[in-house]
Amino acid sequence: MGVLQWFVDLGASVMLPIIIFIFALVLGAKPGKAFRSGITVGIGFIGLNLVIDLLTNSLGPASQSMVENFGFQLNTIDVGWPAAAAISYGTALGSLTIPIGIVVNIILLTFGLTRTLNVDIWNYWHCAFTGSLVYALTGEFALGLFTITVHLLFIFFLGDIIARHVEKFYGYKNITFPHGGSAPSFLVALPFNWLFDRIPGFNKLKANPASIQKRMGIFGDSTVMGVIIGIVIGILAGYHVSEVMQLSIQTGAVMLLMPKMVALLMEGLSPVSEAAGDFVKKRFSGRGLYIGMDSALSVGHPAVLSASLIIVPITLFLAVFLPGNTVLPFGDLATIPFLICLMVPVFRGNIVRTVIAGSFYIAIGLYIASWAAPLITDAAIAANFDMGSNSSISALVDGAVWTTFIFVWLPKVISWFGIGLFGLLILFGLVYVNKIKPKKEVEM
């Protein structure tokens, strides 16, 4: 267990290259190519984290200033996903999530119940998060493990159903995002898109980055839009002119640099994707295989970043004006792109649709994060997490994700039966997507 915890503590930027290297060798890639692939992915993640840190370090103080400028008063602090991940993996229960996830993935692949080969095992922390909350709520270790297992089944199900959308919109062949913080929003976007398509006039509005740039010229360019949005946020924060200018250039830099870091990640993943395709053709004729990756690969898209930067100030105002909300968004404001990145393919890159649906999604999420705050605080205490001067903590990722409510509320209300029934429904979904549906398509 100590070795496993040590491996987890290395973080995604070190874990992932090792995992990519091993999987590439298993899939038949040459050692040199596999090694270079792993190293490139690791460097890509470091570059991506540097850009996210830039966004965090620029948006964080701006958001704090906005809070002070408007006199916002909320008693639960959003500590951000790094803290949530540390809390999740900081207990004996959470540290078991990775081996359970690997076993579940192997079993599902063996029986043809998933097409997702997930190499992004560090992000199993999302499942450890819900399991830890269930344990904090019920005190039942076994029920926490069962919740983790069912949650794992759910992210493999999501990985299977979103893969074709990922390829169609982002252009990533044989890659999917079974990411516990991002994938659930895909299911929320579907009914919203159905509704938007039936609103006269609105259903004709084209608002993807290309159409916006065509209409607005240079002001529609994603980098320039980042600069403009930075100016607006700086003004709302009450910044001086020099500070507004600095923030605007920083947000513009994020818009320009993020896609380049994602491109570097994809460069590293390409050999693995090719090896996976050859591996499947040789051993599983007629069956596709998706490489499960971090949704960080999608957050560099101009539509994702533009919508996210617009949603940041909206999130702060929602937090204040929604009656009953106790959470002050802070640590995860810079990771809003991860919450909405799988809405964007459903809306075909439409920024207006993404902002409307994303704002509604986060509004509901703030209530979930408020509801989960006592449990997250208890889990943090159990994991010996340093909360500083804060007596109540929460997080937007994953505290505000609807799956957190489902996976914690079900064991609370109907214990084993509730989470077991949900697990059976997910299992049927996996059977339908990977067994029944493909058979129907062949018959047709």
From TrEMBL:
- Residue ranges constituting the PTS EIIC type-2 domain according to the UniProt record: 4-440
Q: What is its main location?
A: membrane
Instruction: Report the coiled-coil segments.
Output: none
Q: Which UniProt keywords apply?
A: Cell membrane, Membrane, Phosphotransferase system, Sugar transport, Transmembrane, Transmembrane helix, Transport
InterPro entries recorded for this chain? EIIC-GAT, PTS_EIIC_2, PTS_sugar-sp_permease
What membrane topology does the UniProt entry give?
Multi-pass membrane protein
Location in the cell reads: Cell membrane
Q: Where are the transmembrane segments?
A: 6-27, 39-59, 79-109, 143-163, 175-196, 216-240, 303-322, 329-347, 359-381, 393-410, 416-434
In its UniProt entry, what is this protein called? Answer: PTS system galactitol-specific IIC component
